[in-house]
Amino acid sequence: xxxxxxxxxxxxxxxxxxxxxxxxxxxxxxxxxxxxxxxxxxxxxxxxxxxxxxxxxxxxxxxxxxxxxxxxxxxxxxxxxxxxxxxxxxxxxxxxxxxxxxxxxxxxxxxxxxxxxxxxxxxxxxxxxxxxxxxxxxxxxxxxxxxxxxxxxxxxxxxxxxxxxxxxxxxxxxxxxxxxxxxxxxxxxxxxxxxxxxxxxxxxxxxxxxxxxxxxxxxxxxxxxxxxxx
Length: 230
Hints:
Pfam families: DUF166 (PF02593). By secondary structure, the chain is of the alpha/beta class.
């Protein structure tokens, strides 16, 4: 794809701003964002969402950061009809082409999201090590909020034995997910889930160098989330 990927972002009262900023900062100019803001107060139940959603959506991908479940449901159905994939992290929406990982950094590589999935989703990093300590952490793929990149900058000098746990903790400081939420499927809050995903990314990076810290073994290397609702 030679042109920037056209992404429409739907948010309510700034709900997606940290991730919009992250995509713009760490997207290397690969994405053209169109932000749809819905700022007015809404009733608990919306029988008709047409006044709030655009009549036409011309996008390669839609990111759903809406808070109202009726808006998310109807947006997903509209995008399914248009064959536009949707990433709706943490949502329970069921529609064709909608991906609902528990957090934005839990998104796998479904092969249908174009340039977005190359840069954003479950973290992928590479590391340089010297004298048993991290020399550099290079982010190849990370959370759209930017937490992966921000945490990577804090990791220089940490001992290899402590790197995985420390990376997970650093990410939690920058994570913008709601820490009060709890996912019974994964047994973690979104913030703890994000930390776990980044800990695993660090372990994979160290393993690629032939280093597997025995005190932090984690045999499951498969990214969680990224379900495609069919």
